[in-house]
Amino acid sequence: MAGGNSYTIVEYFGGDDGYRCGYCKNEKGNFSHGQSGKYVYKPTMMKTCCPQHPIRCHALNFQPAKSHKKILKKMSKFLSKGELPKGGGDDEPMDSLCEETGLRRSAKACHSQVEVAAVPETKEEVVACPPADSETSGQDDPPTVQDVVSPAATPKPGMGADPARPPCRKAKDLRKERRLRKEQMKCNAGEDAGSAATPPTPAALGLAHQPKPLEAFIHESLPDGALHCLEVRLVRSSPPCPQFKASFDASYQVYKLYQMAIHKDPPDKPSESQVRLVPVSFEDPQFVASFEQSVALYARYQTAVHGDAAHECDESEAESPSDGPEMGYGSFHQQYWLGGRMVAVGVVDILPTCVSSVYLYYHPEFASLSLGSYSALREIAFTRQLQKQSPKLAYYYLGFYIHSCPKMRYKGQYLPSDLLCPETFAWVPIERCIARLENARYARFNQDPDAGDARTLKDVTRAMVLYKRTVMPYGAYCRKRKGPCDREQVEQYATLLGQTSAESILLYRA
C-alpha cells in the first residue's frame, strides 16, 4: 500500500515438523518457518538437512571466469551457426533468479552492440546480440574456487610432460614478448644513431593487464549472416504492464514445458498464477471485492493513526523514487526472444540496493545452452547498467547458496561474492565461508566471537499484531483477548524477525 508508514500483514506458520527436501530428497529433513501472503520462509539453519545461505555478488567488481566465457562463447556459436551443443547444460538453472519494445529489429541492426528504444509505460531497453568468441581477447581470468589445483593433480615422476623441456607457454604471451623485443631493438638502433629515445614500457605498448569486462563479451557483434538474433525484453509483471499481458500466454507455455521436463511435474500442475508469482487478478471479481475492502481498511488506519490525508491513501503503483532507475522498483520478467519465439524468462526484483534473481524457466529444447548461468551473467550486466542511474544499486542477489547440494555450488563462481552469516547476519566473503562449510554442514561465518545480531528480539510485547481490524502491540492484544494468547508461537515468530521487523510488520491474529 502507498504511504511511508504502511504495514505489511502476514500470517505465521511454525516449522516444527520436517518435510521433503527438494535438494537432497530427504523425506523429513527440511525444516523452515513461513509467513503467508506473498509467501516467504526462513530455513531452520542448525536443523535443516541442506542449510541455505543468501548469496550476493558485488556486480561492479565482477569479472567473468573461464567457465563463464565458455558459456558466452557457446551462446554466440549457436546464434552464429544455429547449432545447439550436444548434451545437457553444465549448470543448475537459477532457482531464485527484462525488456519490451514495439520495434522489431532488422538483421542489419542485430549486428550492432546496443540499441535503446522507449515505449509507453515501460521505457525498457532492447539489448542486442550476444557475444562473439572471446578466446582472442588476450586477457587472463581471475581464479575461482574451482580453479585451485590440488596436490593430487601434480604429475607423478615419469608421468606427464618431459621435465627436461621448458614449460609450455601461451601463444599470446610469446607474441607480446616478440613485439616488445622489436620495439626495444628499434629504440636501441635509434640510440646508436645518436637518438635519445626511451624504450617504451609494456603499459605504453598496451600490454598491461586489463581484464576484458563482462559487457564486452555480451555486446560483441555477431558476424554477417548470423542465423539468430537474441533479444532481451524487460516487462513489469506487478502491476502488469500491457506488454506483460500480451506475452503472458507465450510465457506460460514455456513455464509449463520447463516444469514438466526439468522438474517432472504432471501436465495439470503448472498453473498460470505461478507464472505471475502473485495469486491476484484484477479480472477476478472476488479479488476486486476484497481488494477494495483492504484499501478502505488501510485508508481508515492511515488517517486515524498517522494523520494522513484521504487522497494519500490510495492503492500503490510502481515505486518510482527520484534517485532510482527509470523503470522504478518492483517485479519484472526478463524475456529472452529468438526472433518471434520466447525461449526463456528470468524473474527479477529491482530493489533500492540490488537486483534480486527470483526464478528462471526456459524451453527444454534449449537446455544445452546453460541458460541458468547465461541469464545470471546478463542480470549482472543489467545490475551494472542500473547502477549508473542509481549509485546505491550495486549488488546482484542469486538467492541461496547450498554447499551440501553440488548442483547449487555453481553460484559460488560469481566472484566477488558474500554469504550471510546465519548467526550475526553479517556478509562474509565466500572464500572464508567455503572452508568452514567443507568441515561442517552448519557453520557460523563471522569470526568475531563477540559479534551478535543487533536486531535480536528484546521485548515481544512491542511486536505489532492485527486483531479484529485493529492494529495494536502484542502486549495490548494479550490484555484484550480472552483466553490463550499463543505466546510461544508469537515469540518464535518475533525471534525470527528480530525487534525492528516485529514492530514494523503486522502479525494477523484470528
UniProtKB/TrEMBL annotation:
Keywords: Acyltransferase, Transferase, Ubl conjugation pathway
Location of the N-end rule aminoacyl transferase C-terminal domain: 294-421
Regions of compositional bias (Basic and acidic residues) in chain numbering: 170-179
Alphabetical list of SUPFAM superfamilies matching this protein: Acyl-CoA N-acyltransferases (Nat)
EC number(s) reported in the record: 2.3.2.8
Pfam families found in the cross-reference section: ATE_C, ATE_N
GO molecular function: arginyl-tRNA--protein transferase activity
Residue span of region Disordered: 122-179
Gene Ontology CC, one term: cytoplasm
N-end aminoacyl transferase N-terminal domain span: 36-70
Catalytic activity as recorded in UniProt: an N-terminal L-alpha-aminoacyl-[protein] + L-arginyl-tRNA(Arg) = an N-terminal L-arginyl-L-aminoacyl-[protein] + tRNA(Arg) + H(+)
InterPro entries: Acyl_CoA_acyltransferase, Arg-tRNA-P_Trfase_1_euk, N-end_Aminoacyl_Trfase, N-end_Aminoacyl_Trfase_C, N-end_Aminoacyl_Trfase_N
Superkingdom classification of source: Eukaryota
Reported function: Involved in the post-translational conjugation of arginine to the N-terminal aspartate or glutamate of a protein. This arginylation is required for degradation of the protein via the ubiquitin pathway.
Protein family (similarity comment): Belongs to the R-transferase family.
Name of the molecule in the record: Arginyl-tRNA--protein transferase 1
Lineage: Eukaryota, Metazoa, Chordata, Craniata, Vertebrata
Gene, per the UniProt record: Ate1
